Amino acid sequence: MNVGSIIKLHRIQQNLTQEELADGIISTSYLSKIENGKIEPHEDVIKLLSARLGIDLTSQADANIKKKCEDWFHLLLTSKDTDLIKKTYEEIFPIAENMQDMELSVLWKIHLVRYYLKIEAYDLAKQQIDKLREISSTFNPIQKYYWLKFNGNYYSMINQQQNALQYYTLADNISIQTNISEEEKADLSYTLSVTCSKLRLTSEAQNYAAKALEYYKQNYHFERCAECHIILGISSRRIRQYDKAIQNYQLAQKLAELTKRKDLIRLVHQNLGHLHSVQNNREEAISHYAEIIKEETSHFEVRLLALISIIEEYYKSSHYEKALGKVMQGLGWLDKIGKDNYLIFYYELTVYKFLLNEEYEEFEKTLLDFIPILKQQKDYARLTTYTEMLGDFYVENHKYKLATIYFKVAIESYNKIIEI
Fold first, then answer.
1. What is the mean pLDDT of each run of 10 residues along the chain (420 residues)?
2. Closest CA to 194 of 210, 208, 215
3. Given CA atoms 106, 108, 112, 113 in this order, what sign does their dihedral have?
4. Looking at the domain assignment, is residue 417 inside a domain?
5. Which of 58, 117, 202, 336 is the most exposed place for a label (fewest CB within 10 A)?
6. d(C-alpha 310, C-alpha 324), whole Å
7. Which whole-number Å values give the CA distances from 8 to 57, 117, 131, 318, in the listed order?
8. Which CATH number belongs to the domain containing residue 49 in this structure?
9. Contact 171, 180 (CB under 8 A)
10. Cβ neighbour number for residue 265 with a 10 Å cutoff
11. Kindly report the CA angle at 125 between 119 and 130, in degrees rounded to 5?
């Protein structure tokens, strides 16, 4: 990164215009040429500009500051403890914001994107990305690697997986030009595997997960090994290698239990439940979903999702009384907690309540209210399920034109899932 780019970065971050920075030192047009790398300014000009900005472009950060920054960067990579990450940030912020090593300063500012994402401050992450974009063309390979990766993290967090994949792939390509650690490379491979899995790029997901798993096995990182096995299990299930999928899920479960990661254990049960559902093993599927509900420390939304999965399994196996019992259990939960934050689940439970009670007029009305909400939220999985359900209802009632309309929506929604 050249001197002009560093001056521009600090000017933007201090919300100064070119006119304000240049005033009494040089002309605005001359400053513009400096910032755009078109001319190399005299040393006296650099000193005057840097003095106004409150920085020293000729000094380097001492080893202590560099070590603290690098430790914090590693914490962002490895830790899920947001309280610790925040505390460490607050400790080093005053010195990091005024460090004299400009290369390290830029790397710090790039890592702020990741920090904001870690603490779920997505607006701040976007603002930081926008600030850095103007000088991103001047980044050295290591800076560019993290810039690309953290852009991928941002798009992944806001559920724009195709954009995330684009940035992650660029980061992967540039990683060969850097001396980043094997741990960092493994993290990117795992992140790529998750993104490819979300996009249903099954072969790519398998390859990246296997690559990451090799590193984590060698370094006894059992939690991340479990996560890799879950991705491999999902990939195997999608290509109908069910025995291999079960093997991966079971390995993931053992590792999750070893590390006492309850969230991963629940995720394994969710995936095993889905796998057995696909194979029409209703009792096995229900037993795995039931394990999630038993765990009262699980997030309420996770338990609701498992409950509705059980209702679906009971309904498909014609155990209507058991299904209705679970419906009423779910509605009872929502009565206590409130349905406003769980409206989708409320609609699902209500649809099954009217269906199982043979209140078909209310069943139809509820679905007609529910389907536009799913369209608006682009919830294609549920949209496929419930438009198909309404289409079947119209066929049974000899309303074939209406059935055709909703079967068409179901097909379009399913195709959207495939595209995703």
1. 77 90 92 86 83 70 74 93 93 79 88 96 96 90 96 93 95 92 96 92 95 95 96 95 96 95 93 95 96 88 94 96 97 91 94 97 97 90 94 96 95 78
2. 208
3. positive
4. yes
5. 336
6. 11
7. 13, 25, 10, 68
8. 1.10.260.40
9. no
10. 22
11. 175
Domain residues for the domain of 21 are: 3-53
What's phi and psi for 359, nearest 5 deg?
Answer: -95, 75
Per the structure, the count of domains in the chain is 2
* Separation of alpha carbons 385 and 413, rounded Å: 9
Tokens 């209210």 belong to residue: 369
Q: Report residue 353 as tokens.
A: 């309540």
DSSP secondary structure code for residue 188 in this structure: H
In the chain, % helix, strand, coil (3-state, to 5) comes to 80, 0, 20
SS3 of residue 163 by DSSP = helix
Q: How is 201-246 classified by DSSP, letter by letter? A: -HHHHHHHHHHHHHHHHHTT-HHHHHHHHHHHHHHHHHTT-HHHHH
Closest CA to 377 of 352, 407, 347, 350: 347
* Secondary structure string (H, E, C) spanning 12-73: HHCCCCHHHHHCCCCCHHHHHHHHCCCCCCCHHHHHHHHHHHCCCCCCCCCHHHHHHHHHHH
What is residue 38's predicted lDDT score, i.e. its pLDDT? Answer: 83
Q: Give the dihedral sign, CA 219/208/153/263.
A: negative
Q: What type of residue sits at position 142?
A: I
Radius of gyration of the chain (CA): 27
Has this prediction a pTM greater than 0.90?
Answer: no
Domain-embedded: residue 367: yes
- Pull the structure tokens for residue 202: 């099954």
d(CA 348, CA 204): 34
367 membership: H or E segment, kind and range = helix 360-377
Query: Can you tell me the distance from the alpha carbon of 197 to that of 192, in angstroms, rounded to the nearest whole number?
Result: 8
Q: Helices in 219-319 by DSSP H: which ranges? A: 222-238, 242-258, 262-278, 282-294, 300-316
**Does some domain include residue 24?**
yes
Answer whether 289's CB lies under 8 Å from 326's CB: no
Q: Which residue has the tokens 């999902």?
A: 234
Pair of tokens at residue 252: 């993931």
Is residue 4 within 8 A of residue 36, CB to CB? The reply is yes
CA angle 359, 361, 365 (to 5 degrees): 115
Whether 370 is covered by a domain: the verdict is: yes
